[in-house]
Amino acid sequence: MPDYIHHDPDRILYSLSEDELENLSNQAQSLWKDVCLVSFSVGIPTVINAIAELSNQETFQITITIFLNILIGIMGIALGIVFAIAWHRSHKSIKNVMDNIKARPKIELNPTTSNVGALEDLRGELKKIANQPARWG
């Protein structure tokens, strides 16, 4: 019994080069998000702890506990903001790669074509398109 490939005419398929696939893979596994969340997870509770310590005092005194809580809290929040910006930039870079892939010219495949030579012609056309210089607009 012969094998068949089912074709959905509403489905759009994209081809990727090895570099584009590697670029998407590297940027999708961004460490910035994880470090950002850890920084905020450390910074916010220590600032809250410092505020709670200060509110429990009758006279204003900066103890070593309050000082360290404020210091670590401010550093954690500041680093969280920096890493959030880096995370946002890397996310925009992924979006740009995806937009460039989607902006490529569409080639309509005729599912009724049974001529193997037609597929070879299509492969030649795709190679011509791939070798064209990139158009930035």
Structural features, described:
The longest helix is centred in the middle third of the chain and has 39 residues, at 64-102. By secondary structure, this protein is an all-alpha fold. It has a domain at 18-106. The two termini are 49 Å apart. Helix 1 packs antiparallel against helix 3 (64-102) and helix 2 runs antiparallel to helix 3 (64-102). The chain contains four helices and no strands.
* Main sheet characteristics: none
Q: What average pLDDT do the residues reach?
A: 79
Described by the principal axes of the CA atoms, the overall outline is rod-shaped
Residue windows where pLDDT falls under 50 for at least 5 positions = none
**Which H/E pattern describes the elements?**
HHHH
Nearest-angstrom radius of gyration?
27 Å
Number of strands: 0
Strand content: under 5%
Structural class: mainly alpha
